[in-house]
Each structure stands twice: as structure tokens, then as C-alpha cells.
Design brief:
five-stranded mixed beta sheet; alpha+beta; 5 strands
Length: 66
């Protein structure tokens, strides 16, 4: 089974959470911290979360909590 992943990425309007394979963000948050907090449910459900810096580079890779 393929690992599910979500990305926290910078957008002009804030920080977006986008599931890998989707073209649109699930939701856009005002701050990076809010976006990261919102991914806790995804991690509990078995997804990994990749947090990016504003320039697109990877800041952190959070493993699934499942």
C-alpha cells in the first residue's frame, strides 16, 4: 500500500495543506503554525506530513502516528 502524504506549502494568501496527488489545497491557513496543527488528524489516520519552507525546500518530514 502506498504511503499517503500531505504537504504544507506557502501560498500568496497564506499556508496551504495539500494532499499529495491533488491539484487543489484542502484548506489555506493564515499562518504556517495553524496549517501544521491542522495536519494532526491526517497523521493519526496514517498520513505523513511534509512541511516546506517559503522557498519550497523541505523543513520537516513528520511521520504517521499510526
Amino acid at each position: 500500500m502506498a504511503t499517503k502524504r500531505a504537504h504544507v506549502v506557502k501560498r500568496e494568501s497564506g499556508w496551504a495543506v495539500r494532499k499529495e496527488g491533488n491539484t487543489k489545497a484542502s484548506k489555506v491557513y493564515r499562518t504556517k503554525e495553524e496549517a501544521i496543527r491542522s495536519t494532526e488528524k491526517l497523521r493519526k489516520e496514517g498520513s505523513e506530513v511534509i512541511v516546506h519552507n517559503g522557498d519550497g525546500s523541505i523543513q520537516d518530514w513528520k511521520k504517521s502516528k499510526k
